[in-house]
Amino acid sequence: MISVDLFVYAFIIAILLLIVFIYLMLRRTVLGFREGFEDSQR
Q: Is the alpha carbon torsion for 27, 31, 36, 40 positive or negative?
């Protein structure tokens, strides 16, 4: 039982880390694109 619970917790943590990583990558990409778009308008 304990090993199964440990596996479930590790799985949940891995998913949360993946979501945070994807969010940071998307935010950095959007911010970079917005900066490039504003620079091209000037």
A: positive
SS3 3: helix
Q: Look up tokens 């935010």; give the residue.
A: 27
Which helix (H) or strand (E) segment holds residue 19: the answer is helix 2-41
Q: What percent of the chain has pLDDT over 90?
A: 64
CA dist 31 to 12, 13, 14, 28, 36, Å? 28, 27, 26, 5, 9
Over residues 6-18, the pLDDT tens digits come to: 999 999 999 999 9
